[in-house]
Specification:
single chain; about 85% helix; IQ_motif_EF-hand-BS; cytoplasm; cell projection; cytoskeleton
């Protein structure tokens, strides 16, 4: 799975890093392998390339830089040697690519084969049933038309019944409305005659009421006028009574004042009641008393 591929890739990357560290030695060009055909540097390069190829094959999604590095190996890594690691890695890459293409072609072939078989089966079924489909379709169409014809006839008969019933109902309704209209017209005429009679009666009563109202208005005006006159007379009578009472009181108090003043004059001997005129005054008084008595008699 993905975890195992990651672990293998990490191990291979660690090994490649160690080979690169060993290749940093400057004496690797002078040292040779046991066959004395390659230097140690070239052997290390071949091992690094081999591990890169293994890493490429072990991972589903290899690093693009790894692919470019494998495709750009120089002659020192055995580019001209058909038995070198470079040729081996390149062949493995080509085989992997061809296997992927073959798998894709197989998938496409299977899809096309299934589609071809499906179309073939459909064509066979179509050819098998097309001969029976047309008569069945014609028979089905005839039956459908017959069913529609029966339904149409039933619907026509039903509509005719509805129309006939509707016409009968319309005639009855028309007769009823005519009778009802005549009845309403007769009632309207009766009410109009009654209205005319009652209108004349009400008009006469209204005229009488208006005449009576005018009479009452005139009487009301007369009553108001008389009431005003009575009010004026009452005010005048009250004024006269007050004047008479005032005059009576004035006369009463005037008599009292005159009597009081006469008594004062007599006691004080003032005026004609003085000492020199006492006798004369007495005589005059006696005469006056005699006259008064005579007048009382």
């Amino acid at each position: 799975d993905r975890t195992e591929q990651t672990a293998v890739s990490v191990l291979l990357q660690n090994a490649i890093t160690r080979f690169k560290i060993l290749n940093l030695n400057q004496r690797n060009d002078d040292l040779l392998d046991p066959s004395e055909s390659y230097s140690i540097r070239e052997v290390l390069y071949q091992h690094i390339d081999f591990l890169d190829a293994v890493q490429y094959l072990a991972v589903d999604d290899p690093d693009p830089q790894l692919l470019r590095r494998l495709s750009k190996l120089d002659s020192r890594q055995g580019q001209d040697n058909p038995y070198s690691y470079w040729h081996f890695s390149k062949l493995l890459i080509d085989v992997r690519s061809l296997e992927k293409q073959l798998e894709e072609l197989r998938v496409v072939f299977n899809d096309l084969n299934e589609e071809f078989h499906e179309k073939r089966q459909l064509e066979i079924a179509r050819n098998r049933f097309v001969g029976k489909w047309e008569p069945a379709r014609r028979e089905q169409l005839v039956q459908s038309l017959e069913i529609r014809d029966r339904d149409f006839r039933k619907e026509t008969e039903l509509q005719e019944c509805y129309v006939e019933n509707g016409m009968d109902a319309a005639r009855k309704i028309d007769d009823h409305y005519s009778w009802q209209l005549a009845k309403v017209e007769a009632e309207i005429n009766d009410w109009m005659e009654r209205f005319d009679r009652e209108k004349d009666d009400i008009d006469s009563r209204l005229q009488k009421a208006r005449a009576k109202k005018r009479q009452w208005d005139e009487m009301k005006v007369e009553v108001e006028r008389r009431r005003e006159e009575v009010t004026k007379l009452e005010v005048s009578e009250r004024t006269l009574a007050e004047d008479a009472e005032h005059r009576r009181m004035c006369e009463k108090f005037a008599v009292r004042i005159q009597a009081w003043w006469r008594g004062v004059m007599v006691r004080k001997g003032l005026g004609r009641f003085g000492k020199g005129k006492k006798k004369k005054g007495k005589k005059g008084a006696k005469k006056g008393k005699g006259k008064a008595k005579k007048s009382k008699k």
